[in-house]
């Protein structure tokens, strides 16, 4: 039997992945079975009405970026949206984009899944039909969304059966979703994009003000490409391409790699004083908001930002930054309840970093009742400023926060690998930089994801764009260094979701000597 490790934010889902391994599956099967159950049992964070981005490494070392993000609907009228809104809304019909997740699962399976497609969805279908115990994290998300559910009775019927919100330990059932998963299991992804599910979904969404048509679904295509990469401390780090913001992980690790290590056992993120790393976080976030978009509309090449000269310039700019220059707004996105990461690896050379999402908690809040599909609000990542490359337009992909990243040793790429993923909205690159840094310094996977961390960026809608969020148990020396950061600060409790839910696997050795070390973030329900 293939030796496989998998980690996710929910034990129920991880168990489904391990069951797939026991049935003869590999890392790809484990990731897919886990991801499918999460769309049922973690609906605040992901659903089959959402998106997926992934990196998959195959036994021959080839790594592929899978972009299964959806485009804005063909009926989108930016001027009409602009006439009523100063920025994109996060709930209701307007931010709904084409759902890409199911297509992404299929693309990932095509890279070497060992089990039949139907088997990969079986546990998810069963969980939706028979029910599952509501986790503490889901119960918290349900309680938090109650004030907004009055205008969304279809979702309210699922979250509040009998008129009362589900609480931790109670059973949630989704019979309509179970039927949809059964159709997908039998007929494959085409059932959604050009089959019996597409008509029902579009009809139901139309009644709820979402102008999705069967042409929107038929036109959907998963895009695949070689990932971006930089070399850092003896590792080749690989990341998804735009419109994913994952390239920022390469920018940040590449920046840190320009500084010499005084102690080779020190994590790479400690090569800069913490206040300067915080300013680096803010600087690259501002860069992202200015340039990142659907790659067909970008005017800046991210490859040009990853050259040694560009990384050295970033380092020089960070060192010269005294914290007094004008700061621009950063899009606000609650990391809690918007995304899940699944990581998997096996002893045959496969690695999977899979991120799937609804964006905000429960996405758009629109649930199409005949299919049970909850729709994402990824279109909220668009802006309405016509001067921006990320301006809303029909058939266009928005700037994307999902950030799949992998790494492999430059010296022994077939034996030493790192697989990391996180939720965290716009601060995912900051979280990933800190986790990768610790892994590269020799921390175990659990130590790396459980260690205290900090992020920079707005949390609530009225937060400052340069808000510093710091877990209270962070190393005192780092806390002292952060005193030199000029922006506002929020001190968080230990293991606070505002610094994300990260999961990691460190792979050493090969064949019978392979060791798989997995870690699941204690900030999640995993």
Short description:
This protein is of the alpha+beta class and 526 residues long. It has helices spanning 11-22, 27-41, 78-84, 101-109, 117-130, 136-145, 153-159, 175-187, 190-194, 196-207, 214-218, 247-257, 274-291, 308-320, 428-440, 445-450, 476-482, and strands at 4-7, 51-57, 63-68, 132-133, 171-172, 223-225, 228-232, 235-239, 339-346, 351-357, 367-368, 373-374, 405-409, 417-422, 454-456, 468-471, 489-492, 502-508, 515-520.
Secondary structural class: alpha+beta
- Tell me roughly what share of residues is in helical segments: 25-40%
Could you report the average pLDDT, rounded to the nearest whole number?
95
Low-pLDDT segments: 329-337
Distance between the amino and carboxyl termini: 25 Å
Largest pleated sheet = 6 strands, antiparallel
For the CA atoms, what is the radius of gyration? 21 Å
User: In terms of quaternary structure, what is this?
Assistant: single chain
What share of the residues does DSSP label as strand, in percent? 15-25%
